[in-house]
Amino acid sequence: MEPKTLNISSTVSLEDIPHLWEQNDTLILVININDYGTLSYDHLDNIEKEHLENLQTGYFRKRYNISRMVLKCILCVLLEKQSTFDVSIYKDKYGRLHVPDHDEFNICISYTGDVFFLAISKIKVGIDAEKWKHTSLRNVSKYMQIKKLCADGCATDLMCLTSWTLKEAYCKFSNQSIFSYLNKAPDIDNICHSSYFINNKYILTVVTGSVRYKINISFFEKYSHSKIIFE
Q1: What is the pTM of this model?
Q2: How far apart are CA 190 and CA 202, in angstroms?
Q3: pLDDT in tens, 48-61
Q4: Phi and psi for 15 in degrees, rounded to 5?
Q5: Segment 70-118, tens digit of pLDDT
Q6: Spatial separation of the C-alpha atoms in residues 74 and 117, rounded to whole Å
Q7: Beta strands per DSSP E along 7-146
Q8: 133 vs 60, 138, 229, CA distance in Å?
Q9: Packing angle between helix 136-144 and helix 157-174, nearest 10 degrees?
Q10: CA-CA distance, 161 to 17, in Å (whole number)?
Q11: Per CATH, which fold does 4-228 belong to?
């Protein structure tokens, strides 16, 4: 499968989110972790703080912290809350994020390199993103089993890595472990999937159960600490 080339030059701000949410079924925001320095953990609840402490490196802790702050910041605007401290999220047994009493929000996050892709959707969604490198498959095929995945019909490394993102996005959509699908293809007959090659740098695959839906994919504008956590 070959991804659609998508060139994105502009960014969207927090103020743009309500309008974009009104106009689309799915929003996917690309957030650069390096835009943010050392930030407070005050916005995390006790379960989130416990999870944070179990992460092995400062890099993993930083991206987790930033992803939760940005997500709560966006939900604060959409829910018209006074503060991000009024927003709570939780994980179910499959690792899927939910907003209590708000089933209209379907959330999925994919980390790659120094960015993460955040999907907030009105329909059930699974996403996976990978930073593109010509050496990607050579370095990871031994444990991702890309060669088996791409044995039939994959003409290029780009197409093979796109197939891998489809497998990961499908697993997130269907609440399956990626390990259960290493040696078999996802059942794509009952899903809708689209793949994008963004700015010749990132491969993104989106899986939903709907054939027709409106999607907006944008880079999210950097925000200062004081804007992300409303005082």
Answers
A1: 0.89
A2: 26
A3: 999 999 999 999 99
A4: -65, -25
A5: 999 999 999 999 888 899 999 998 889 999 999 999 999 999 999 999 9
A6: 14
A7: 11-12, 26-32, 90-91, 97-98, 106-112, 115-121, 125-131
A8: 21, 10, 35
A9: 40
A10: 30
A11: Ribosomal Protein L22; Chain A (3.90.470)
Burial grade of 209 (CB within 10 A; 0-12, 13-18, 19 or more): middle
Beta carbons of 194 and 4 less than 8 angstroms apart: yes
As given in the structure block, the two tokens for residue 103 are 């089933």
Q: Which amino acid is at 178?
A: I
Q: What type of residue is 73?
A: C
Averaged pLDDT for residues 125-137:
81
Amino acid at the residue 151: A
Beta-carbon contacts of 218 under 8 Å, excluding residues fewer than 6 positions away, are: 8, 10, 11, 12, 20, 27, 28, 29, 30
